[in-house]
Amino acid sequence: MTRDRFISEVRTCQGQLRRFLTSLCGDAAHADDIAQEALVRAYVTSERFIGNFKAWLFRIAYNCFIDDLRRRPDGAVDIDSREAMHLTGGAASDASFEHEELQRALTLIPEKERTAIVLFYFEDLPIKEISKIMDAPAGTVKYYLSVGRGHLKEHISQ
Known about the structure:
With 158 residues, this protein is mostly helical. The chain is built from 9 helices and no strands. The longest helix is centred in the N-terminal third of the chain and has 23 residues, at 3-25.
């Protein structure tokens, strides 16, 4: 992949990448740091890239997020940040994030469930791509979605 093509591909999905990472870690500045690390990793290996760029980049970013969690002494994520609650995105994610109760509930569910739900419902990615990003079988992604929806319902009805 050429440098120009890499830059073009990144420009196409950088807003979605930032929104995804901010929804995972809850802090826009921290999400930007993780995104920067992911973009550097992606650029370094871009010569060997073949396939769906967005799924590949999201996979790298998700791995950077997991690596960051492992480096934290307590593994904690600040998911109460107001920045994550007011991100704008496409029409589907804007409509979904309008509801504050849903926003609050998302911060309360486990990371893998939150990741699957954000990628599926807010980024409109198919199960197959989410499976690649999360490095999990499609059945496991469907399980995360199902259990995550159940957890959201519990938190929303409280």
